[in-house]
Design a protein that fits this description.
324 residues; five-stranded mixed beta barrel; 9 helices; 20 strands; globular
Amino acid sequence: MAEWLYEAGIGEARAALVEDGEIVEARIEREGDGPRVGAVVAARLVEPGKLILDTPGEPTATVTGLARSVALGSKLTVEIIRMGLRERGRDKPARARLAEAGASVNAGPDLRARIESTDIPVTEVHATGEDRLEAAGWSELIDHIRTGRWPFDGGELWVDATPAMLLIDIDGDGDPMALARAGARAAVHVIRCCDVGGSIGIDFPSLPRRAQRLAIDALVDEWLPQPFERTGTNGFGLMQIIRRRERPSLIEQIRFDSVATDAALLLRQAERSVGTGVLTLNARPAVAALVEAHPAWLHMLQTRTGRPVQIVANAQVKGSGHAQ
C-alpha cells in the first residue's frame, strides 16, 4: 500500500511517497524558500512587468496581464503561480498574476497540505521513532542527486541540471533495446521522484529501427504520469519531454544549495543523536554559519533533544559534518 511519510524537520520539512518499501516521490520544503505556489501576497510594481513582493527579503517577481494604465509604484495583490527558481549560475524570480478581487493575503498550501490533498494516507514520522524515511532510502536518494549517478540493473543514468534543461544520459553495455527499456524506466523514476518540470532531455542508446523507437515512446507514455508533452525518440536516441514547472525540483534544491542541504542533513542527524550532555555539531564553516544564523533552529534542537547545543566550525570537515 502506498503512503506518504512526512517529517517536520528543523528548517526543512520532508515527504516521501513510499510504495513497497521504496521512495517513488520525494519532496522537501525549506524555511525561507520564498512565496509558495498559490500564495496571495501584497506587491509593488517597480518596473513594467516586475514586482517587489511584500514578503521576507522582498524578493522580486514577474507579472503578466497588467493593463498599461497601471502606474509604476502601484500597490497590487497578486497570486504566485511559479516559485522562484535557482539554476546553475543564475536565479529566476517567481511568477505572479493579479489575484482575484477580494482575495485575502495568505501563504499558500504548504508541503503537508499538498500531500494531504492527494488522498493517499499520510504518516508523520518523528526523530524519536523508527527512521522510516531512512529505511526507504532517503540518504541514498540524496547521494544519487548529489553525484548525478543513478545505477540500475544493466546500466546507469547520469543526470545533469543545466539552465536549458535537465539532461539524462543512459549509459551501459549489452543489447541496446534492453538498455533503452531499463533506462526508460529508471529515467521516468528520476523525473517523478524528484518532481522535475520544464524541459527534460533523455539520451537513449541509438535504436536503428523505427519500431524500437516507437516502443520506447510507448513505455514512457505508460510509465510517466500525465500531464506532459514529448517528442518521439529520434534516430540519435534523443527524446525531449516538457512538464509543468511550478516549483524547483528536488535536484535543483539539493544540488544548487549545498550549504542548506548539508545544514538540513546535519540537523536531522543531530535530532537522532543518542547520549547526554552537550550536543556538538561539527561542520564546515559555511554550514556552521548558516545554522548559527538561525537561533530558532538551535532552540528547537535543544528542545527536541533535551541537550545543550554547541557548534564547531572546522574547515577540515567534509559534507554535512557530524553531530555527537
